Structures are given as C-alpha cells and as structure tokens.
Amino acid sequence: MPQVPDDGLVPRYGRTSRIERFGRRQISVNVKPPPKVNDLALSLMSLLKPEKSARISPVRPAWDPRRVLVCTEPEYRERIARCLTEYGCEVFIANDTQQAVERMRESHMDVVILDQSFDPLDQGAAFVTREVNVLRPAQRRRIFFVSLSSSKRSMDAHAAFLQNVNIIVNHNDLGALDEILERAMREFNELYKDFNAACGLAGL
User: Which pTM does this prediction carry?
Assistant: First the structure.
C-alpha cells in the first residue's frame, strides 16, 4: 500500500485530494485548485462592465424635427427662420413678449433663440429669460438656450456661463447660424449622452 505523505495531500491526475481520517475510515475529498488571478480579474470586470444596450441613447426620429422659438428684432427674424427651416427645423416666430411666453408654456421648444433687444417696451428679453430659468433642472436640460449679441463674440463659453445660456451668437455670424448651432448642439448632446441614455431620452 503506498505511503501517504504527512501533509495528507496526494497528487491525482493533476488535481489534489485530501485524505481525512475519521476513526478507522478514510474519506477522500477532492479539493479544486484556487482560480487563477487572471480569471478573477476577468470575472470582476464582467460584473462591473455595464451592458452595451444601456449606453445607447434613443435616436431622434426623422419625422420629429427640432422645434425652435425665435425671439428677435424684426430685421433678423426672416433671416434666421429661413436659415433654420433649410436646416430642417420647425420654426416659430414670436412677434412680442406675450406670444413668446404663451408658446413656451403651450408646447415644448427644443431651442430658444433670444435677442437681448427683443420687445424692449415690455422687457421681452427679461421675461423670456425668466421663463427658461424657472424651469426645473430636468426641463431646463431639454432646452438649448441661444443668446444673440452685438458685442460678444460667438461661442464665448465664459460669457454664456455668466448669462446662464448654452451659447452666444454674434449678429455678424447669423449667416452661419445653422453650422454654429449644429456644432454646439453636437457637443451638448455628447456631454449629456450617458445621462440621456440612462433616462431613455434622445439627444436634442
């Protein structure tokens, strides 16, 4: 009969068996080798890694164009409306403060373009800005607020932050408004991509 080593471990076909003695009986118990470090790391990574489907945001359907509210001086309205219509947006023009506020309260706008000199007699810019600022954070994130300026440069992030708007566009750059808007909204959607995916929302 072969001698059993003192440690009680006997190699058997690449695996390890432990001999446990209970009185006169001997019981052989198979002991599996510990998993390798690489296997443990891969298992942990698979548990921590989110599913790919959870990262994908819904795509905005082609039949649902962006809804844009234009609140500007008369000399810019037609120019902006024509540019954004060709860009594929559904454009609404507000002639005064009342129309702008009513439109924002009646239906959701994806983009609000506001000129600081809009309806100065009724302080139109102040009222439109207030309508945007009083929104809850979840609602505010679903509006891209554009401020038109004659003095500030386009895409000035610091000035936009101070005004609590998403982007500033100079009047001299209105001819390229569609290109500026496309770039700015692409960056905006990229910033909120994971958040929108978690909420099941499409980008603006």
Answer: 0.68
